[in-house]
Amino acid sequence: MTKMKNPYLPEMATIQEIIQETHNIKTFRVTLNNEQSMKNFSFEPGQVGQLSVFGVGESTFVINSSPTRMDYLQFSVMAAGEVTQRLHTMQVGDEIGVRAPLGNWFPYEKMKGKDIVIVGGGIGMAPLRTLLLYMIDNRDDYGKITVIYGARTPQDLTYSYEFEEWRAAKDLNLVLTVDNEAPGWEHKVGLIPNVLLEESPSPDNTVAITCGPPIMIKFTLEALKKLGFEDENIYTTLEKRMKCGIGLCGRCNIGTSYVCVDGPVYSFAKLKTLPNEL
Amino acid sequence: MAKYLKKDDLGSWLKELGETYKVIAPVEEGDAVVFRRLTDERTLRIDRQATQGPKGVLFPACEELVSFKYVKDPENPEKTKVEVKETVEAEPTLIFGARPCDARGFDVFDGAFTKCAVKDNYYMARREQAIVVSLACTKTETTCFCNWVGGSPDGTGGSDVLLTPVTGGYLVEAVTDKGEALMGGKLLSDADDARQAEAKKLLQEAKDSLREAPDFDCMPEQLYALFDNMDFWEKQSAKCISCGACTYLCPTCHCFNITDEQQGKEGSRIRSWDNCMSHMFTNEASGHNPRPTKAYRLKNRVGHKFCYFPDMHDGHIACVGCGRCIKSCPVALDIREVVTAAKECRLPEEETSDD
Asked: How many beta-carbon pairs under 8 angstroms link A with B?
């Protein structure tokens, strides 16, 4: 029998730290139990992984730490289905399975030398955080960075404990917004696409990356088009129900493109060539 | 060189092969004919198409991918560790009595599971150890349409050996080197010209009995063009009750689910056949479903077979024309009619240009 790598076999990992981000989002920092595996682990910003709770199942999450900071792998998990709800009951020291990295990544090489506009909504900030930290750690490779990050309420903003670090980066403008006025809120109030239009970043030599709920992506895309961004300079990262994570189980395809292998990162130019099935 | 096997010697030949291989063949099970391990107690049935093809031999309806066990850490009784083990099992297996359409299903599986970025090690382990001895069709049924999708009653794709029924026995021909290894047994004699001519005649008659094949080369383009025409898909799927019989009986359907089962401290991660016609197949935890109705799901099923798979695999259609989905559909939905309607559907652009 041919002995080959088993793509379905998870690596065992241990939860090192848990951060309660919002009322229904927790961030898990994990390390692979096998020291050599952890040392050799490499991934690109935007790639995803399957987390296993044995006895419950697997679910897909973006690795939202940066490959420039390899002390742990970080995953942010919104309690929604069976696996995510069980993950939310887990404690530091508990073991989970990890199959990663899977999928493609943000074209961070192609983005070098350009200005960057990041537009995130809610938990959609998770994959963007990876890219943001990567660019902060390679700050001289990129131009001006604008981050527009919104959520329903101030309490729904993830990674708020890191905002100071983001702001401290050279030439980085962090714009926060919530849907409605809230006590003590000193930032923008309004829907993300409107705030984006207000900020009005120039499309010249600029790449925009957006992630969030489908309705937000739809209107953000319209706003970016209004600002003059070309489809090939706008990227997003998609979500689908996934099982295998290696392009075989048949549920995450958009036509011939399997989101788990050919995605999750797509330019809008590429998405336009695929059947309309998001 | 073609060989000849006497009908009366078939049982002995399979018994002989059973010493080297686990022999799986179509046998009676109630009213159905299904592929099971051939034993003395089971009755071989090769006079009709099996109710279900042999796909489960290489891609089981249900299989354990990994097993896991929660164990207390003796050093630290507060802590529970998880022991995980992979289960990749395969043994030399001979699939006997697959029809050329069934064997071509393995060709599709080979494309899906082995000609891709990450290969399926479970399928590959079984495929490497398997030898496929197919039986050509000298009779066809009204639901047969292998000739529409690139197959033939004597097609050899996916087979290692092909048997053709002739008077008193079978013409036996090796298709691959793997199959050549089976040509040496004492029970096989050299086939004379008369037998070869008879086989040729019978197969030609079988081919002639099939309905004329439409040209499906245009299907990918046509199906992409019909993607947003939901009226078309709603009409085509109106009868469908989303039962999934078509997917489970299809020799090329290979979508699967992965689920965990646990009893006490131990459990298994199981892979099982899944059904793309079910609402749950693509339903996301948020409640969003990219294929929210059966019209979207039928579109994807037909699209995968006649558009996406061909686009990804050198034009090969992922349908082998066995007709089982037609025979077994409780509401008589006929994939031939759906694809023909799609082929003949006038596209909105053309209608506009006619105005």
From this structure: 139
Looking at chain A from residue 36 to 65, which residues have their Cβ under 8 Å from any Cβ of chain B? 52, 54-59
* Whether residue A97 sits in one domain with residue A191: no
Identify the domain boundary among A37, A69, A102. A102
Residue B73 has a pLDDT of 82
pLDDT reported for residue A1: 42
Residues of chain A with C-beta less than 8 angstroms from the C-beta of B257:
243, 249
ipTM here: 0.92
CA A101 – CA B117 distance, rounded (Å): 14
Nearest chain B residue to A81 by CA distance is: B285
Contact B89, B18 (CB under 8 A): no
| A165 has a pLDDT exceeding 80 | yes
The answer to whether residues A131 and A46 touch, using CB atoms and an 8 Å cutoff, is yes
- Note whether residue A269 is domain-resident: no
The pLDDT of residue B355 is above 60: no
Residue A78, domain member (yes or no)? yes
Do A85 and A150 lie in one domain? The reply is no
User: For residue A58, what are the CA distances in angstroms to A96, A116, A241, A263, B269?
Assistant: 10, 33, 11, 19, 10
* Binary contact (A4, B119; C-beta < 8 A): yes
- Residue B131 scores a pLDDT above 50: yes
Contact across the interface for A1 and B128, Cβ inside 8 Å: yes
Mean pLDDT of B9-20: 96
Residues of A whose CB is below 8 A from B68: 54-55
Domain boundaries, chain B: 1-59+92-213, 214-348
CATH code where residue A163 lies: 3.40.50.80
Whether A58 sits inside 8 A of B304 (CB atoms) is no
Does A2 map to a domain? Answer: no
Q: Which of B66, B110, B268, B302 to mutate to test the interface with A (most CBs of A within 10 A)?
A: B66
Q: Give the count of domains, chain A.
A: 2
Enclosing domain of residue A129: 115-237
- Chain B within 8 Å of A154 (Cβ-Cβ)? no
CATH number of the domain that A54 lies in?
2.40.30.10
C-beta atoms of B276 and A9 within 8 A: no
* Cα gap B211→B213, rounded to integer Å: 6
pLDDT digits (tens, 9 = 90+) for A13-32: 999 999 999 999 999 999 99
pLDDT recorded at residue A156: 96
| Rounded distance between C-alpha atoms, residue A78 and residue A57, angstroms | 16
**Which CA distances in Å does B285 have to A60, A242, B115, B281?**
11, 11, 31, 12
Q: Is A243 within 8 Å of B257 when comparing Cβ atoms?
A: yes
Q: Is A250 on the interface with B (CB under 8 A)?
A: yes
CB A147 within 8 A of CB A175: yes
